[in-house]
Amino acid sequence: MGRDGDSWYGCTFASFDSSFCTAATYCKRLDYGRCERIDGILVGKSTMSDKSYEIVDGVPTYKLFINGEWVTSSRNALDDSINPANGEVFARVQQAGPDEIERAIATSYAAKDTWGDTLASEREKLLLNTIEVIEKRTPEIRDALIDECGSAFNKALWEIEYVVDCLRSAAGDVRHVFGETMPTTMPGQMSMSVRRPLGVIVGICPFNSPFLLQMKKIAYALAAGNTFILKPSEETPVSALKIAEIFEEAGLPPGVLNVLTGVPSEIGDVMVADKRIKMITFTGSHKTGTHLAGEASKNMKRVTLEMGGKSPLIVLKDADIDYAVDAAAFGILLHQGQVCMASSKVIVEKEIFDEFSRKFTEKVKTVKVGDPRDPETVVGPLIRRSQCDFINGHIEDAKAKGAKIVIGGNHKDNFYEPTILTGVNSDMRIYNEETFGPVVSILPAEDSDEALKIANDTVYGLSAAVITNDLQKAMDMSLKLESGMVHVNDCTISDEPHVPFGGVKNSGTGREGGRHSLEEMTELKWITVQLGKREFPF
Predict the structure, then answer these.
(1) N or C: which end of the chain has fewer CB within 10 A?
(2) Number of domains composing the chain
(3) What whole-number distance in Å separates Cα of residue 421 and Cα of residue 355?
(4) Distance of CA 106 to the CA centre of its chain
């Protein structure tokens, strides 16, 4: 989290008179009684209590978050959230029905203009307030990530730290929603562009890094002046509801953020068809993403898609082998390989292939698999038992076609052993498909040209990496790799809040992070002002 001497606030804010305060106007329109002043700024009143859930039979049972209120679904249907490490029910959550979906859309739409006109300083302050809440509640958030999605202890802490950094970045970008002035051939005319919020944005997110991926979408959407409806993975709904709790405590006005847990197809199909919603931002499978994009196009709805990858790590013969081994291990074993950027293909020049393979195997053997609450654990459980079966399918197919298991290939319950394969070729499913587990294929290459060819031989193009001491060759390969991101002398897993995160080919379209999110989440408008009278030809 924050280092000694860090300050989450770069400035202080004077008190605003309510007659000039956009937030005051916002609250008056909705429910002034649900607002209060925080450091001089009028915001939605914090109502944090046990309203978000009730303990039923010893299990927290969460409600939906709509228009700043915790509500029960009209269908009163519940779904279990399962702890993947022990198979026990971690929590239960309400499943949104048609009434709740409509209310979420309606309240987000009603709030969009007022939130969009809220002063930049106020949006900035609310995002910074959110950091304070997260810091205070870090142990609770950490435990939820461990219990709900099987995050190892240190991965959960890293995810929280990333979110804090993301909120700081988004708060800074609030003041960087820029247009420009342009020259014109029209006498006496000023020509300019301005950026305006899109309105209502829907975020659909996966299970693997739920706190990070959900908050990244929300933070920049709010920074740009949009309202947001969050549809989390059905496997990690509590993380989304924790985000709602956090923003509620930070003072976010009603309607600006709504969270709907429920059946993905029911919620998604309604959202993508509703003309009040202007954008879908999606992270998840290629199958779902392409379906959403196709449906959204029918309503001219903006879409950003991040749909996974088969990310190659290239190790050239001049590389520091020990360093390359460490990079490859981190790149495939972080969060059990359930990372879209995971280094699932390691391509090594033949001269060092045997040595690399030996040292990499030795390294992987030392990695601790087990209880995700243990800070020494690297590999925890996969999200569900069916994922183990899916991985087994990849491995059995590869073995049948000539691949060799160097280490691993087994699982106990949801815990899959780190697995290394050699002899993998393009006829195998594991060569082409995203495995989403702690399984890596090591492939030899005659030279850098063949390594590049193997790396590009995929329908995906999210992340790639090259380890070499030849920077000329590294830059040349970086430009030729068919990937949205390339990391030189690093692994394929890398992300910062302000960078243009995204892929090409079947990995998606659009970019997330910093000003790149702001560009995706705003509309560019051209405005002219005629100074004096224009002469018309008739």
Answers:
(1) C
(2) 2
(3) 15
(4) 25
Catalytic residue among 27, 340, 388, 491: 340
Picking from 455, 452, 93, 476, the residue whose alpha carbon sits closest to that of residue 259 is 93
- Is residue 85 included in any domain, yes or no? no
- My answer on whether 121 and 257 are in the same domain is yes
Q: Where in 436-499 does DSSP place strands (E)?
A: 439-445, 463-467, 485-488
Annotated catalytic residue: which of 100, 159, 248, 306? 306
Looking up tokens 């005629």 gives 530
Same structural domain for residues 199 and 337?
no
Catalytic residue flag (residue 205): no
Q: What is the mean pLDDT of the chain?
A: 90
Q: What's the pLDDT score for residue 166?
A: 98
Q: Strand 463-467 and strand 485-488: pairing?
A: parallel
Strand, helix or coil for residue 26: helix
Q: Which residue has the tokens 């399962």?
A: 82
- For 186-214, the pLDDT digits (tens) are 999 999 999 999 999 999 999 999 999 99
Looking at 379-419, list the stretches that DSSP marks H as alpha helix, in order from N- to C-terminal side: 385-400
Q: How many residues does the chain have?
A: 538
Retrieve residue 25's tokens: 């106007």
Active site residue 11: no
CATH code of the domain containing 453: 3.40.309.10
Q: H or E stretch including 523?
A: strand 522-530
1 pLDDT band, cuts 50/70/90, is: very low
Mean pLDDT of 22-28: 34
Check whether residue 354 and residue 424 sit in a common domain: yes
Question: What whole-number distance in Å separates Cα of residue 363 and Cα of residue 412?
Answer: 21
- Answer whether 168's CB lies under 8 Å from 132's CB: no
Domain that holds residue 357: 312-488
pLDDT tens digits, one per residue of 281-298:
999 999 999 999 999 999
> Edge-to-edge strands of the sheet including 69-71?
69-71, 64-66, 257-259, 227-231, 200-204, 277-283, 302-306, 508-509
